[in-house]
Amino acid sequence: MKYFSTRNKLESNINNAVLKGLAADGGLFMPEQIPVLPKEFFDTIEEKTLPEIGFVVAKAFLEDSVPDEVLKPMMEEVLNFEIPAVKVKENIYSLELFHGPTMAFKDVGARFMARLMSYFSEGKPMRVIAATSGDTGSAVASGFFEVEGIDVFILYPEGKVSPLQEKQLTTWGKNIKAFEIKGAFDDCQAIAKQLLADEELKKQFTLTSANSINIARLIPQSIYYFWAYAQLKKIGKPIVFSVPSGNFGNLTAGLFAYKMGLPVEKFVASTNINNIIPKYLESGKYEPKESQQTISNAMDVGNPSNYERMKDLFHDKVESFREIILGYDFTDDQTKEAIKEVYNQTKYILDPHGAVAYLGLNKYFQNSESNAVGVLLETAHPAKFLEVVEETLQQKISVPEKLEAFNRKEKKSIKCNKDYDEVKKIFKEI
Ligand SMILES: *Cc1c(COP(=O)(O)O)cnc(C)c1O
Fold this sequence. Notes:
By secondary structure, the chain is α/β, with parallel strands linked by helices. The chain contains 19 helices and 14 strands. The two termini are about 40 Å apart. Strand 10, helix 11 and strand 11 form a beta-alpha-beta unit. The radius of gyration is 20 Å and the shape is globular. The strands form 3 sheets. Strands 4-5-13-10-11-12 form a 6-stranded mixed sheet, with helices on both faces. Pyridoxal-5'-phosphate (PLP) binds near residues 248, 250 and 379.
């Protein structure tokens, strides 16, 4: 399968698309067409395991660029934790994407990308760059930690990630380095893009991106939409997915699954007050803005990078977006109310991102006659947002040992202003 950039339709193969991350014209790579899976796959999907489904989905995008005997064990390793669809209440399920090593959904994409890059790079030294608003960086760090020949540089906004998230970014050592930038996530993203496009640096290093702009992050994220369907198929109702969104990689992966033939009634694009896409769906105008800080900080994005891919999928027609996506946005107060309400009704604890998705589902059901089952994508474990969740519920919640282990380690970061030249200088010297 060929891959093309979203801007000038530059052609690439998958190896190059994964190793480059961003295309030379600044666009994002997209497959020539989204592969459609055969009907038989869906007929027996409930009999398959998560890694088996993962293999079929990955294979559809990679074709023969990775041999089956490499891809099969790769998928078993990537998907070596459970992703259960847990019933929260009647007709509402939480697809728990947080059982990986850093307890956020980005583990899925990062673990696949790390293994695929390592396979394609054939042992040549490489520098991976990732801007993060919280969870990307830790998932990427975990995915690449101690991978031979690959150094990882993470850029995160000072004071804008939770204390635990910060520990998960800054305590790895070895091949993982963290830049703590005095600025917002958008500044980090801008600097990352500039580093990746810097001709001087490109002569010196093989550079690549680990943000959700990398197609290797998106492909595996499609898998769990199929897995949710496999688990809920027996209920015999259509599915609505509510996706708590920032850069819209997760939702775009859901759209891939849909185009591959997965039956979906609708996607709800649920956001916090950084509501660029809900606004776009309403007005037809795409108006990026500076991001605003919220309690669901992994979604504080003012110019969602995967809009470019969605635009490509829908041929830039807002009417086509609207056929399958609805967008709703919510404030921090509403998010806290949702955490309280769900806990009081069911004892299920949502994290702030999952709570935004829950609100999106509720609004969808209020505004439609739908008899679908709603699936909210629970993208992080609530203990990753301990301060907010405990304050909201007015009680202590238990922290899994996997997370406690990070808290005990010592932070090491490189502090920088949001100044490209300052970051570049240090980048060149370490
Ligand atoms: C990254 C992240 C999101 C947003 O995902 P996108 O693919 O950027 O839309 C939502 N929740 C959590 C916990 C995240 O880490």
